[in-house]
UniProtKB/TrEMBL annotation:
<feature type="region of interest" description="Disordered">
    <location>
        <begin position="99"/>
        <end position="118"/>
    </location>
</feature>
<dbReference type="GO" id="GO:0005737">
    <property type="term" value="C:cytoplasm"/>
</dbReference>
<dbReference type="Pfam" id="PF05773">
    <property type="entry name" value="RWD"/>
</dbReference>
<keyword id="KW-0007">Acetylation</keyword>
<dbReference type="InterPro" id="IPR040213">
    <property type="entry name" value="GIR2-like"/>
</dbReference>
<dbReference type="Pfam" id="PF16543">
    <property type="entry name" value="DFRP_C"/>
</dbReference>
<keyword id="KW-0597">Phosphoprotein</keyword>
<comment type="similarity">
    <text>Belongs to the RWDD1/GIR2 family.</text>
</comment>
<protein>
    <recommendedName>
        <fullName>RWD domain-containing protein 1</fullName>
    </recommendedName>
</protein>
<feature type="compositionally biased region" description="Basic and acidic residues">
    <location>
        <begin position="99"/>
        <end position="117"/>
    </location>
</feature>
<dbReference type="InterPro" id="IPR032378">
    <property type="entry name" value="ZC3H15/TMA46_C"/>
</dbReference>
<dbReference type="InterPro" id="IPR016135">
    <property type="entry name" value="UBQ-conjugating_enzyme/RWD"/>
</dbReference>
<feature type="domain" description="RWD">
    <location>
        <begin position="1"/>
        <end position="91"/>
    </location>
</feature>
<dbReference type="InterPro" id="IPR006575">
    <property type="entry name" value="RWD_dom"/>
</dbReference>
<comment type="function">
    <text>Protects DRG2 from proteolytic degradation.</text>
</comment>
Length: 180
């Protein structure tokens, strides 16, 4: 877009190639020709930017300075814009790489968490005996509670084996029943 004729001032919007999720970085450069252009570098500035960090803007300005100095005596706007275009594409690639690294880091962390879940206390004789004592105490407590509940509910019923052990007449009751 041409802004003025004297001195010649114009803007060029430079956009990177689309990255992941169609993300692009973009900048609008404003150039102003000096009287002795191309023997003198044009004035340039970044008018607007999109999805760029301050470090990236600083890098682009350094790139413009370097390219302008290298191309003194030649028409250089196309070269400057091309350099910025390449830099923006590099930035998009860096963003992709950064995201991939973050994704890999998260995967590594998740993997470490998974390993920690399966990594328990090593079993030694002392650990096992301590565990066994606690486990037996818990079982005994459960049996006591169950017996108390049965006594309170009046369900102190004996099992078949207990009945036979207590009353020996039941040993022969089936035989008597069959004889009758």
């Amino acid at each position: 877009t041409v802004l003025s004729e004297k001195p010649t001032t114009f803007t060029i919007t430079v956009t990177s190639e689309a990255g992941e999720n169609d993300e692009t970085v973009q900048t609008t450069l404003k150039f102003t020709y000096r009287e002795k252009y191309p023997d003198e570098t044009p004035l340039y500035e970044i008018v607007s930017q999109e999805n760029l960090d301050d470090n990236d803007v600083t890098d682009i300005i350094k790139l413009l300075e370097q390219q302008a100095e290298e191309n003194l005596g030649m028409v250089m706007i196309f070269t400057l814009v091309s350099g910025v275009q390449e830099k923006l594409n590099e930035i998009v690639d860096q963003i992709k790489t950064r995201r991939e690294e973050e994704k890999k880091q998260k995967e590594r962390e998740a993997e470490e968490e998974e390993k920690q879940r399966f990594h328990g206390t090593p079993v030694t004789i002392e650990n096992f005996l301590n565990w066994k004592a606690k486990f037996d105490a818990e079982l005994l407590e459960i049996k006591r509670k169950k017996m108390k509940e049965e006594e309170q509910a009046g369900k102190n019923k004996l099992s078949g084996k207990q009945l036979f052990e207590m009353d020996h007449n039941l040993d022969t009751s089936d035989i008597q029943f069959l004889e009758e």
